[in-house]
Amino acid sequence: MLPSVSARVPASSIAAAQDRGSRLFGCGVVVYAALMLAAKLSGNVWFDELAALALIGLFLLPGLRRRRVLAWIVWFCAAAMLALLGAHGNGRFALDCMPVLINVALCFVFARTLVRNREPLIARIIAALEGRERLMLPRVATYARRLTWAWALSLGIQASVLATLVLCVVPDGLLASLRVAPPIAIGPAWRWYLHLGSYVLVPALLVLEYAFRRWHLRHLPHPPLARFIVLLARRWPSLMRSIADDTARSG
């Protein structure tokens, strides 16, 4: 019998590929942040467009690196739509909608793994970071399912809040730009939460959950927070690929 592909690939090569992917993702984050800063300082909507396209590229990065046709089609379609918005002077709304779409996508990722006969995403993370034996320990599997529910609900609520901000901020929200009176008039001071606070909230919740987990599962040993975050960042792309494969099989 021929050995599997994974058996023939050295572990060092897999680790090197993961490191390259992590570095590329980090570079993408820097580019996105630089474009965001340029957009704020210059007021040029095309920087907003490029920042939105860079953010979409970050989420499609695993598929783009593996030369998946669907990922490239989505990226080119997104580029065309953003160019169309920019040509009509509505480029900033494309960037405003990015945090909403990110939270909706992440909410779907967590919620998708809660359906029957699927393993919750937090359980997959625990298995990937600490071994599947960890899930066999008392209270761990139950905690993993409840935490997956908590993340899905939190991300869904945040998506709703952000969508409300995009629509109802006065005077430069989407409804106001269409000359429609928003049902809730939100002051422009809240715009900071759209592009900064919404991103800060996720790592803040991650740190709070880590502290709660150490207390709730205090009968178990836990890795240091910094090591946990580094391992999670390195394993996240492979976890997303496994969920995407599950979705494709079920579809």
Core attributes:
disordered N terminus; mainly alpha; 251 residues; 0% strand
Model description:
By secondary structure, the chain is mostly helical. It has helices spanning 5-8, 11-42, 45-59, 61-65, 69-87, 91-112, 121-130, 140-168, 174-177, 191-216, 225-250. The protein has two domains: 1-89; 96-251, no CATH class. It contains eleven helices and no strands. α3 packs antiparallel against α5 (69-87). The chain crosses the membrane at residues 21-39, 45-62, 69-87, 93-115, 149-172, 192-212. It comes from Dokdonella soli. This is Ketosynthase.
What is this structure's SSE topology?
Blueprint (H helix, E strand, L loop, with lengths): L4 H4 L2 H32 L2 H15 L1 H5 L3 H19 L3 H22 L8 H10 L9 H29 L5 H4 L13 H26 L8 H26 L1
Protein name: Ketosynthase
Keywords: Membrane, Transmembrane, Transmembrane helix
Shape annotation: globular
Summed up, the helix count is: 11
Number of strands: 0
Helix/strand order, N-terminal first: HHHHHHHHHHH
- Helix content class: over 70%
Whole-number tally of structural domains: 2
Low-confidence stretches: 1-7
Tell me the span between the first and last alpha carbons. 31 Å
Largest sheet: none
Beta-strand percentage range: under 5%
Secondary-structure-based class equals: mainly alpha
Q: Radius of gyration over alpha carbons? A: 20 Å
- On the 0 to 100 scale, the average pLDDT is 80
Oligomer: single chain
